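worker-3 :: picked Vacuolar protein sorting-associated protein 41 homolog
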Amino acid sequence: MSELEEKERKPSEESTDDSEEEDSEEEPKLKYERLANGVTEILQTDAASCMTVHDKFLALGTHFGKVFLLDVQGNVTQKYEISSVKINQISLDESGEHVGICSEDGKVQVFGLYTREGFHESFDCPIKVVALHPQFSKSNNKQFVTGGNKLFLYERNWLNRWKTSTLHEGEGSITNIKWRANLIAWANNVGVKIYDISTKQRITNVLRDNTCLRPDMYPCSLCWKDNTTLIIGWGSSVKICSVKERDPTEMRDLPSRYVEIVSAFETEFFISGLAPLADQLVTLYYVKENSDHMEEEFRARPRLDIIQPLPESCEEISSDALTVRNFQENECRDYRLEHSEGESLFYIISPKDIVVAKERDQDDHIDWLLDKKKYEEALMAAEISFKNIKRHDVQKIGMAYINHLVEKGDYDTAARKCQKVLGKNMDLWENEVYRFKTIGQLKAISQYLPRGDLRLRPAIYEMILHEFLMTDYEGFATLIREWPGELYNNMTIVQAVTNHLKKDPTNSILLTTLAELYTYDQRYDRALEIYLRLRHKDVYQLIHKHNLFSSIEDKIVLLMDFDKEKAVDMLLDNEDKISTDRVVEELKDRPELLHVYLHKLFKRDHHKGQKYHEKQISLYAEYDRPNLLPFLRDSTHCPLEKALEICQQRHFVEETVFLLSRMGNCRRALQMIMEELGDVDKAIEFAKEQDDAELWEDLISYSIDKPPFITGLLNNIGTHVDPIILIHRIKEGMEIPNLRDSLVKILQDYNLQILLREGCKKILVADSLSLLHKMHRTQMRGVRVDEENICEACHVTILPSDTAQPFSVVVFHCRHMFHKECLPSQGTIPGVQYCNICSAKRRGPGSGILDMKK
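worker-3 :: tokens ->
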């Protein structure tokens, strides 16, 4: 609810009166201002009785019989002395070129504002209303109606004379007339009628509901929403009527049109005026002083409401109580509501005041949001509608929002909004930075400062870095990482950090930050020293990124101590920059690190570090025995005697066995397995690998007096050695564990071998027979011989040109063809000949022949 308050002002400041809103979270729909300038002067000595609105100007009638033409600002452009008494009604045609005026003393005047033509008449009774034809300026529409006790229609005929006809009488005074297109609506004491001027028929009569109210005190309000929709307000009742065409089949003697009431409802107060606003209604209410539910301060003030009509009720959208001048002395009949269809302007007319209501635009919406301190919503609205706002600036609203946040103490949000609001204005940025410094909140704004193509002066960034360096080492380190080094003077910051390190030389955060600063300044060797001292994970990235391999040749041990895996991978990936010999030289005093490096080198390429294989034997034996045997197996460059010596010294049996077998001393190797390891399965496996009959004999001889070994042999040697040999050599009476099971397994294995052989034989025979049948079928097929074939010996066409002559042709199964006389004599086997071409294949496909004779 908004309240229009009249303010004390000097005579020269009478042009504006503001609309003051109550403290409500609901935004009003309309804004208000008084029509001032010339209107103020007129109403100081006179009183408004009526007013008509045109898109171009206003026409105001007064109680002293004067009519003023005003511009939309209220300035007087024309004055007419019509009568000495009250002007009751002013009517304008759509073009705004003709005006109709009636007064309380019965005078009626219709004249052109820009021509001399006119109608002047005086009646013996007050004329309450007059209405011109909307197209009055056209020659064939020179019509108007007046209303007093009767409703008269005036028409100019072809002789340029006015013809009068009575449209209605006998139901009291005509209090209101509205003319739209071909329809005239008027109100009298009984109700509202509508007349169709084109068919000269009255089409409806809408009766008055509140018959207890005096028509002269609570007059009817009429308003056409469009050419077929009439809005009626009378007392506290509202009706919306729609004029429709009647179905021709139902017409009979009825008018061609009829009226349907689409909405009818009661309101809380008395209606003084109505106007359409899209699909809603603007209603001007008169509030009686004795209303029980109205607060004392609001009683008797008129209200302007926006309502949404429903079929049988309405929904209130907004409601504003207006403090017009002398509202305490006004009655319902003293208020009028006129509207301008083109601009959605609504004029509230009272005897001593005229108020203009207009829809609130985006600027007004932003005003309301700012007044309610809803700065974020105001900024968002301004950004969305920046092309349509006229009084506001997006940046100024943003600055107001930032100021509000700072006042609230929400410094982080204020700093974040600076990024959007200040944009590319570097002067504003610097001002804000100094303001945040003044309030001790440089940290809040630091992360939002410009860092791209547009930048502040280096001194600004240095000031913030010094602030962090004094109070927050971690924050300082974060800024150094996030800010490009070009934003500030790097040497200045390096010096400041160095000074702080003098007080705290082991501070890892400051040391790391100093290394990053050295990196920005391309002093990579200094940065590398710090990273290595701190064992920092970025040391390897720094080396790779800036190619610092020449700087780390004497720091390989440090790198290995920090992270062996990463260091070795880096060294091996860059052998062209740091040679293997150099690495081995650096690691000679750290054999455990040397082993890691050489082991990975060997894994990558078995031949690259071959000259270090002898050294690796002892390194594997000392630090990584599990990988010693795989190394011995894969290496072809290590000296076997040296390896055997080391393994024997350290009693590495498995490795010694491998070396002995590789050096050809398999019997000694087998002996070690049996004596040192006592593992018959490993011994059997070793014998299988070597596949040497003498080894099997040695194994049997060694095992013959050891029952567990005999059991192992019986279970495993069946496919390599005849078990009977072993069984015959077993001493009589020797107790052998699980002998029965071992013998059963031998028999089962033998039976399995017999079954496999028989199965293989059956498959072989079946396959041979199948292939024999296939070959026989193939060789029995005929071979096509025609003129295109030639003799492979003489290269003449195989068939003679005269086939009637006798001829003889030999065709081999290899498809080679010969004249019989071109073949050599038969071989040693009578009746068998071979293809000369395929004779290299003994009894190949050319061994068979087809002999053709004629």
